[in-house]
Amino acid sequence: MTNAKQLRPPVLTYKNRGQDHQVTVDSAKGQWNLRGPGGSGDLGFMKPGARQKAWIVVNFKDFRSDEEWKALSQFIGALETLSQQRGIDLGENLFRRHGRPVNAIACRSGEDVVRKLNSEVEHNPGVGLIVCVLNDKFNEEFLYPAIKRWSHTQSGIATQCVRGDKCTTAKGTGRGNPAYIAGILLKMNLKLGGHNVYARDGLQLMRSKPTIVFGVDVNHASPSSTKPSYAALVATMDREGSEYFTTVNAQTSRKELVDLKDKVRAALRNWKSKNGEAPQQIIFYRDGVAHNQFENECRLEVQDIRDACQEEGGQFYNPEVRYIVVQQRTRCRLAMQGQNPPNQQGSNVPQGLAGNVPAGTVVDEGIVGGAGNDFYIVAHNALKGTARPLHCHVLINDEPKVSLAEFQRITFDFCHLYARATKIVSRPAPVYYAHRAAFLAQYYEADYRDKSGNRWETTSTSSAGSHGSGSRDAAMADIKLHPAVSQTVYFA
């Protein structure tokens, strides 16, 4: 029997008719909705994305009937209406001017896609968003990578890909698919530089002093591949944990160690530019590191962080460093006995059957290490199967030391701030964002084709500890993100 404690979810804040509105998270379900009080419509984002001059729709799907075209028109109208309700000003809708979206179904290669997008931007100056309608089965393995490569490294123009089948599935005349549109807007607002949600009373460890929070992850190709690995670093730029700076690079195949010094320097420089001072505290979340790498890889990365501070801020600049490794691939499982599973209350599940622990369950004794610097946390509510806890190891905790309870609190808070969803996720947002940025980085290789079976709505393959080094160095170690996207959550 292991004692556990239950963390309270933070109170989340959205906008409602221009005023802040508090949203209570249902811990039993691990999620919340964006409906305003008293049927007042959908809640708005805390900071809408930057106002655009115009936006266009580019169609890569072969629509065969007038009914499909009509449904697509309804979808675009509903997208525009809900954007306005959430506070996003997309500017002129060029879809309405032309009557139909830009036709791009003839594109047969990544080069075709890039030429088409460049042509449309040239003929429609001021476009700040391109909505791309893709085929239902995504059988063009070049298409999605080419769109993102063009957006993230060449043009800096936000792109939002949507599924053609979901666009044309109406749930009511003129409404399109409301749930699908709502999910799209969560991502679209981030790509336009907006902030979706704040934790009103959360992130206290960040509010105690000027603090920057990093997330780092590495994406590896399949074990049999010699393709480069891709590392990503994301860093918070505000005290709400909503604004991020990102840098990515390719490195030796299967290499887990990340050369952090230049990345951390760039992030510190951006943080100081935005906040007018240097951070006094660095909280560093590192994903994908195995126990046998703690002494070597982690020690070198921590030294990179300290060296970056010295080189960027001078020899007397020594911010407090707190380095935390998060491990997702753990064999530990936590369950409750003696009652119905929390997500099945009121059902006919027999008493005594083991069920998932509630979201926010933390264990920091008994089954953890003896040094008192690690803990397990089940932040999310598992929809299927048994929830897998996150194992967090606090490897560096500079003076004045922060308590383990404070690390647990901020980790759980960040699991609510993964702004692509309205639910608690299993790992803190900086880690999840680094995970996505590292995965998308493989698409920036010229003429990349996705032959792995991964598709643009699937999750990425994370690093999983030490695998040794590959036989060749990456040919594109310096990936240049467009300046317009490196300051946004472009990987949403």
Short description, anyone?
The chain is an alpha/beta fold. The chain has helices at 66-85, 94-98, 110-123, 143-155, 164-167, 178-191, 204-207, 261-275, 294-313, 404-414, 429-440, 483-486; strands spanning 5-6, 12-16, 19-23, 54-59, 92-93, 102-103, 127-134, 158-163, 198-199, 211-219, 229-236, 244-251, 281-287, 320-327, 335-336, 355-356, 361-363, 374-378, 390-397. The chain has a nine-stranded mixed sheet, with helices on both faces. Strands 4, 5, 6, 7 and 8 form a five-stranded parallel sheet that branches.
Structural commentary:
α1 (66-85) crosses α6 (178-191), α3 crosses α4 (143-155) and α8 crosses α9. A hairpin with a 7-residue loop joins β11 and β12 (244-251). 28% of the residues lie in helices and 20% in strands. It is α/β, with parallel strands linked by helices and 492 residues long. It is globular and about 65 Å long.
Give the strand line-up of the largest sheet. Answer: 1-17-18-19-14-13-10-11-12
**Major sheet:** 9 strands, mixed
What is the structural class? Answer: alpha/beta
Mean residue pLDDT: 86
Q: Tally the helices.
A: 12
Low-confidence stretches: 341-352, 453-462, 464-476
Q: Compute the separation of the termini in Å.
A: 40 Å
What's the architecture of the largest domain in CATH terms? 2-Layer Sandwich
Which percent range fits the helix content?
Answer: 25-40%
* Binned strand content: 15-25%
Write down the Rg.
23 Å
CATH homologous superfamily designation of the largest domain: Ribonuclease H-like superfamily/Ribonuclease H
Shape descriptor reads globular
What is the number of beta strands?
19
The CATH topology of the largest domain is given as: Nucleotidyltransferase, domain 5
Number of domains: 2
